[in-house]
Structure to design on (328 residues):
């Protein structure tokens, strides 16, 4: 190594934050299922940075994206059992164990990213996190994957009538199935990894999907019609094994909680910004992005589903009432 190289190396070392020069006291492995371009990964990175800062380098967050530690169900079960430290898990997965998080995806309840950030930071949302204690989980916060819309390969969809009979992929979740059955489609639960081929072969007419995934997974190659139905958002819950959390020193517990809560709004608003940018990219690829002009009809059709799910748990009702009361 020549003199210049030595000087550069020395400068780099002296410019490093002190925390990075020493091993952290605590390393927490955090898994999620999405690619590194997805908003969930952005949230995990924000969380990592905030935890390092708030803990003074005592805690290192090690992120494992793209199903390295398992799919959403495996992550949730692993965190419960303590075989996985922590994870960012889609809220729809929690219906396997509790109805509480279904409140986040009640149909047509939240209509903007700003409103979603408000809802995530609300007192009822914090109570929902606290309710996860009963499952052996420490609920830390929420991040957002993207507003869900209607994409299909068959025809432009501008009204409830246009939706009728279309075979639409939905997340394997009872609430999602009930919503799309109520509005007149043929909801088809299917693993995420099978959507591309099903659209390509015509086994599916379409899917309910966030715009960033339509682009990232190249669903637009077969499905050219996107309707801005905005039926619900697609949140994730940041969770940690409760027993492991409780074993940490009080200052490290506080750092984790504060980091998760204080990054919620920035992550949600960034997800909204990225949605607009990706929509423009899709238009450039020949995708038709249409307004949906029949919200009153689909909302009325789905009202009985919303009522049913609000009645499943007092916290779901409290959350929904809070959102309706404070919605701008």
């Amino acid at each position: 190594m020549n003199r210049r190289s030595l000087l550069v190396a020395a400068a780099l070392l002296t410019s490093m934050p002190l925390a990075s020069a020493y091993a952290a006291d605590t390393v927490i492995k955090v898994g999620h299922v999405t690619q590194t371009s997805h908003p969930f990964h952005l949230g995990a990175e924000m969380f990592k940075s905030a935890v390092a800062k708030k803990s003074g380098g005592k805690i290192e967050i090690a992120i494992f994206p793209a199903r390295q530690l398992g799919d959403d169900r495996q992550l949730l079960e692993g965190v419960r059992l303590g075989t996985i430290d922590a994870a960012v898990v889609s809220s729809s997965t929690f219906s396997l164990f509790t109805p509480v998080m279904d409140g986040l995806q009640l149909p047509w309840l939240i209509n903007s990213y700003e409103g979603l950030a408000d809802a995530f930071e609300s007192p009822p949302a914090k109570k929902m996190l606290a309710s996860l204690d009963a499952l052996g989980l420490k609920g830390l916060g929420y991040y957002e994957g993207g507003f869900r819309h209607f994409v299909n390969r068959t025809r432009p969809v501008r009204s409830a009538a246009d939706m009728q009979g279309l075979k639409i992929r939905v997340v394997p979740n009872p609430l999602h199935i009930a919503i799309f059955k109520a509005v007149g489609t043929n909801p088809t639960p299917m693993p995420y990894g099978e959507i591309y081929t099903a659209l390509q072969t015509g086994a599916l007419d379409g899917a309910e999907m966030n715009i960033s995934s339509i682009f990232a997974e190249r669903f637009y190659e077969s499905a050219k019609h996107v309707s801005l139905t905005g039926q619900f958002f697609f949140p994730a819950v940041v969770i940690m094994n409760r027993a492991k959390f409780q074993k940490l020193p009080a200052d490290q517990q506080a750092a984790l909680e504060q980091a998760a809560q204080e990054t919620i709004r920035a992550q949600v608003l960034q997800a909204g910004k990225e949605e607009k940018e990706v929509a423009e990219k899709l238009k450039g690829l020949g995708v038709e992005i249409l307004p949906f002009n029949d919200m009153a009809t689909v909302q009325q059709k789905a009202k009985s589903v919303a009522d049913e799910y609000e009645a499943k748990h007092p916290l779901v009702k409290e959350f929904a009432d809070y959102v309706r009361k404070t919605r701008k």
